[in-house]
């Protein structure tokens, strides 16, 4: 894939306002998450030369995960959320304003799939949780191959990411989070070219498992 040409089209006023709003919300979320989790980020990649869309595929421990991952990223990230969450008054407007798009969980959602394809073909960075839901006990669940299939269709690389320690801060059994220590790491981008969806997801899972073990040990000894 070629490097991005160093000539950028001027942003519209709407785009400038949207980026400014995203960065303001990111700063507020960064402050709150840092105080709550003392999160540290490792191996945040420099993908400035990437030409095209990118999928960040992460394990899913808590509702905090999109914030914990997004706060480390220099550019806006697009997110997916179940449709029921986007029907909550107030919350819906807030999360939509920072690039969250609805998708149905546990069902074939053609509209949601078209949205994902459109975002990737537009060159956006999209955060997806292959497990589809938060972990029940802190371990990795089954990874669904749909993420890889979409990446293959758009020829978008997949960047594995791992969140560790967030489950202890906010397990599913608690209504509200508690203070804790969290670490987030990024792996090496995987190209979907020449691989099946199953092979791609096996590579993503392998990297996340390796990062999870390293981060757990790091958190234990800090």
Compressed to H and E, one letter per element, the order equals HEEHEHEHEHEHEH
Q: Would you tell me the overall average pLDDT?
A: 85
Taken from the alpha-carbon principal axes, the silhouette is globular
Which structural class do you get from the secondary structure elements? alpha/beta
Major beta sheet, strand line-up: 1-7-6-2-5
Note the gap between the termini. 40 Å
Radius of gyration: 17 Å
Helix content: 25-40%
Major pleated sheet: 5 strands, mixed
Number of helices: 7
Low-confidence stretches: 1-9
Please count the beta strands (DSSP E, at least 2 residues each).
7
Q: What portion of residues belong to β-strands?
A: 5-15%
Keywords:
two-stranded parallel sheet; 222 residues; 7 helices; 7 strands; globular; single chain; alpha/beta
Topology:
Layout: H1 13-37, E1 40-42, E2 54-58, H2 65-70, E3 79-82, H3 91-97, E4 100-103, H4 110-121, E5 125-128, H5 146-154, E6 158-164, H6 166-169, E7 183-186, H7 197-221
Parallel strand pairs: 1-7, 2-5, 2-6, 3-4
Antiparallel strand pairs: 6-7
Helix pairs in contact: 4-5, 5-7
Note down, in words, how this protein is organized:
- The chain is α/β, with parallel strands linked by helices.
- The chain contains seven helices and seven strands; from the N terminus they run αββαβαβαβαβαβα.
- The protein has helices at 13-37, 65-70, 91-97, 110-121, 146-154, 166-169, 197-221, and strands at 40-42, 54-58, 79-82, 100-103, 125-128, 158-164, 183-186.
- A five-stranded mixed beta sheet has the order 1-7-6-2-5. Strands 3-4 form a two-stranded parallel ribbon.
- Strand 3, helix 3 (91-97) and strand 4 form a beta-alpha-beta unit.
- Helix 4 packs across helix 5 and helix 5 packs across helix 7 (197-221).
- The chain is globular and about 40 Å long.
């Amino acid at each position: 894939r070629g490097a991005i040409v160093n000539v950028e089209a001027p942003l519209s006023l709407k785009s400038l306002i949207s980026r400014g709003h995203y960065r303001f919300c990111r700063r507020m979320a960064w402050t709150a998450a840092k105080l709550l989790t003392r999160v540290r980020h490792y191996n945040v990649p420099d993908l400035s030369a990437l030409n095209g869309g990118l999928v960040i595929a992460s394990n899913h421990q808590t509702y905090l995960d999109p914030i914990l991952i997004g706060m480390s990223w220099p550019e806006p990230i697009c997110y997916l959320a179940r449709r029921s969450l986007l029907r909550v008054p107030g919350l819906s407007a807030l999360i939509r304003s920072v690039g969250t798009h609805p998708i149905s969980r546990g069902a074939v959602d053609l509209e949601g799939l078209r949205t994902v394809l459109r975002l990737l073909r537009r060159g956006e960075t999209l955060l997806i949780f292959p497990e589809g839901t938060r972990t029940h006990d802190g371990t990795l669940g089954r990874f669904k191959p749909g993420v890889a299939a979409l990446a293959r269709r758009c020829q978008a690389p997949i960047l594995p990411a791992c969140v560790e320690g967030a489950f202890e801060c906010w397990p599913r059994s608690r209504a509200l989070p508690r203070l804790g220590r969290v670490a987030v790491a990024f792996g090496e981008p995987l190209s979907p070219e020449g691989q099946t969806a199953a092979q791609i997801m096996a590579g993503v899972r392998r990297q996340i498992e390796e990062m999870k073990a390293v981060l757990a040990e790091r958190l234990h000894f800090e």
